[in-house]
Amino acid sequence: MKTAKKNGLATAAVLGAILMAGSAVAPAMADDASRGGEDVQGQQGSDSKGQGGQGETSKHVLLLSVDGLHQKDLDLYVQNHPTSALASLVNHGTSYTHAQTPVPSDSFPGMVGQLTGGNPGTTGVYYDDTFNRALLPAGTTDCKNTAPGAEVAFTEAADRNQNALDAGQGLAGLPASILNMTGQPGALLDPATLPVDPATCKPVYPHQYLKVNTVFEVAKSAGLTTAWSDKHPAYEILNGPSGKGLDDLFTPEINSIAPAPFNGDWTKDNAATQQYDGYKVQAVLNEIDGKDHSGTKTAAVPGIFGMNFQAVSTAQKLPTSDGLTGGYLQGGTVPGPLLSKALDFVNASVGKFESALAASGHAKDTTVILSAKHGQSPMDASTLTRVPDSAIIDGLNATWKSAHPGSADLVAFSTDDDIMQLWLSDHSQAAAQFAKDYLAAHPAAGNDINGAAKTVTTSGLSKVYAGSEVANYFGTQTSDARYPDILGIAQTGVVYTGGKAKIAEHGGASADDRDVPLVVSGANDEHARTVTTAVETTQIAPTILKTLGLDPNKLQAVQIEGTKTLPQR
């Protein structure tokens, strides 16, 4: 749902001296100071493998990601709806009230983090649309004579048909027939859109790009069934490097064209987004009922399964939809009418899951985990500044070429939402410093929530990392082919967009981007517990495995980063 700005993708100046595989890295840290706190229940001791907790086991884990949801949102909803399904999860589970997502707080690294236990420096996944200095551009056939440097677009752009809800499978009767979509959507990716591995001269599929294994692969090796539902076929990355982690992956394309009466894709109208999410809800209900996602084939209830919701995210981003105002009321704390409606939809869906688990007898052997891939920023619309980043990049390129006559554009590729990531045609530290100095020295023109002109200092950035500073930030080596040459942390309220259709975005390092709920509710949780110790959503992955009685250390990212299970679990 982001637009990447591309400049000279095949420029010969981009040189790659690295293999696709990366080195061991440490967790990425937020630019913000950690929100400390105390575990009101007291930290549990660790077992012999360093994974602490109570050791409760279940046969099934249902993971729900409500994209855009903040901890503040959940707190207020439960307060105002004490008998709701969301309140039931909180009242019969452990709430981690200081949980944070990885940086960048994008859907792709956020979901990958929850299901691998790793941050971007470990997983190699920095965003859904990035650049790799070692791979070759999509469509390359002369791999010996093509300069390295390629866009890696694991978005709707990789679909065979990004305008179709089934991504090009060719189902009749869409959208009503969408549950008949294949459970192996990797087959719906167009190999001509994928970057090429210079060693094999073959396209690189998302699961091949991931550096570490997933909880699904560990579960499969233990004989469990696995399933997931998400928003693009490129989420086949969750299969893990084996390509076989998921038995059933349902990925209707959210950026396809929605049918009348809607205009545009399923994100442009919140009612459309709710309808879209409803298909995934039904898929999960079918799986709880002992069927595959389509509901037509008998299947074991998955050991690990779940879905992501998009309705809250679009209700936060759209200025208006369905006659309702999007985002939050003045002050940025209380959800406005559109967002309130979206929260009610999610709550009703969670209620359906709870009822289905009870009816099937699985409420007693299923643990439900509720979190979010990312938050959304800004919550307070009065702080919004929309900044067209194209002017910033054009200015940087012009200044670079003026100082280096005959040179190509400095920016080979960029992905900017409420974070700025630039991949440069010159990978030297000197070039990165040049870009950093330019960004720090130039203001940028933008507009506020009402569309009035507004100027921001230092290109709208509060901090800029360049070259080796970026590698250090992500805990990776400078030889890593994947990390951006420039990482810019946006000022509060800054969203990089050329239009006025958004009032919020995600991807950045602010509290609004990263402070998400994390609730673990098991069959034996009779009361609410609150843990205020700072945790990361990457800790969900080892916690899932421990809950199933499996070894969290089977996860490669857990071994690399030392990711712990969540305390009190």
Automatic annotation (TrEMBL):
InterPro entries: Alkaline_phosphatase_core_sf (IPR017850), Phosphodiest/P_Trfase (IPR002591). Residues 30-56 are annotated as: Disordered. Residues 1-26 form the signal peptide. The keyword Isomerase does not apply. It comes from Arthrobacter bambusae. Keywords: Signal. This is Phosphodiesterase. Gene3D superfamilies: Alkaline Phosphatase, subunit A (3.40.720.10). It holds the Pfam family Phosphodiest.
